[in-house]
Write a structure and sequence with these properties.
Helix content is 28%, strand content 20%. By secondary structure, the chain is α+β, with helices and mostly antiparallel strands. Belongs to the oxygen-dependent FAD-linked oxidoreductase family.
């Protein structure tokens, strides 16, 4: 939001009393705000600001702008950025998590076609609130314990993005505090330049404080199989046939490399033969296919699934199915995160990169990156996921 080039940085002790009361100088708090999930960037702020309202954020920004050398302000939600988006040297980290306290329980308000959500709220809480009304956001991020403002400042993608686009394509309206300290409501129609700058803007064009997210009817169950290849066919199934296609498609790479592969989906008794397959081929390509349905349409699911996978180039004996609730499916990554946390693997560097690769170069990417770099050079890769995307989404 601002840069500070002065060799003598601003001191929190200079802040007006009403702001100083919300500035934390606690060493442990500063330490926690000095790194993010990536553990690649490390920057030490002078203070952490704990707002209880949008007015507090406005006052902080206007105060910074009043100084000869404004200090940097870095909004931070759950701290899951990987390249220092929520960090600042000699500035102030804005802890967005306290915002919910002043909304008096109104931070998630569900309507017929949309939900108004405080930017500090977690997606898992948005899901649970909307499911009570038989509704759901259309597009997701895989890990549900991220803040709404955090993923909307990036993109928000997962296996549903081929149908609905990323999360930033399903936002109807935003409340944003600008770098001038103005609270602006923006949408594709009103203040559209700010709206499109902030979505995916990495926090550089304003601070999202509230979002209006589009909703649709929520299914109750999710049935998914894992197999290899034909992602493009699966995501174009809606247009090519009368049969309802997949609701979720993601490709996973199982590599014969450390650290241990994520095999939490597969039945335990099948792990030896899966590991044997990976050891034999070095790389195994699998597809996760999701079918969402309601209990009253359960009788058609197996038939639709059979039509979807007919003719796909996978090993029939390596097709696995699991039937779980829609909420469990959307929150499935929680188990893996808790496993990593319990084994001390969260507090290590997490280099992470999202790439959009055109269809014309995906084969080159496979040969040049997966085979020639990852496999041949024995580079550990904890998670490689392919999300097929329709260009028009």
């Amino acid at each position: 939001m601002a840069t500070n080039k002065d060799s003598n940085p601003w001191s929190p002790l200079q802040a007006p009393k009403e702001l100083a009361q919300k500035l934390s100088l606690d060493p442990q708090t500063l330490l926690l705000a000095s790194s993010d999930f990536g553990f690649i960037e490390n920057k030490t702020p002078l203070a952490v600001f704990e707002p209880s309202s949008e007015s507090d954020i406005i006052d902080l920004i206007k105060y910074s702008n009043s100084l000869p050398n404004p200090f940097t302000i870095a909004p931070r939600g759950q701290g899951h950025s990987t390249h220092g988006q929520g960090l600042t040297n000699d500035g102030v980290v804005l802890n967005m998590n306290g915002l919910g306290d002043f909304r008096n329980g109104s931070e998630i308000v569900v309507y017929d076609e949309y939900v108004d959500v405080g930017a500090e709220q977690l997606w898992i809480d948005v899901l649970r609130a909307t499911l009570k009304h038989g509704l759901t956001p259309l597009s997701w991020t895989d890990y549900m314990y991220l803040s709404v403002g955090g993923t909307l400042s990036n993109a928000g993608i997962n296996g549903t993005s081929f149908r609905f686009g990323p999360q930033i394509s399903n936002v109807l309206q935003l409340d944003v505090v600008t770098g001038k300290g103005d609270l602006v409501t923006c949408s594709p129609v009103n203040n559209s330049e700010l709206f499109y700058a902030v979505l995916g803007g990495l926090g550089q064009f304003g601070i999202i404080t509230k979002a209006r997210i589009a909703l649709g009817p929520a299914p109750t169950r999710a049935n998914f199989s894992e197999f290899t290849k034909d992602q493009e066919y699966l995501i174009s199934f809606h247009e090519k046939t009368e049969t309802r296609g997949a609701d979720h498609v993601a490709g996973y790479i199982l590599a014969n490399l450390p650290p241990p592969r994520d095999v939490s989906f597969y039945p335990e008794q099948d792990l030896p033969r899966i590991n044997s397959l990976v050891s034999k081929h070095g790389l195994v390509y699998s597809i996760e296919l999701g079918k969402f349905y309601d209990t009253n349409s359960q009788s058609h699911i197996e038939e639709e699934l059979a039509k979807l996978i007919k003719g796909l180039k996978f090993i029939p004996t390596f097709a696995f199915e699991k039937d779980i609730s829609y909420e469990e499916f959307q929150n499935r990554l929680r188990v893996d995160i808790e496993f990593l946390r319990s084994n001390g693997l969260l507090n290590v560097p997490h280099p992470w990169l999202d790439l959009f690769v055109p269809r014309s170069r995906i084969s080159d990417f496979n040969e040049g990156v997966l085979k020639d770099i990852v496999l041949k050079q024995n580079i550990p890769s904890a998670s490689i996921i392919f999300y097929p995307m329709n260009h028009n989404k």
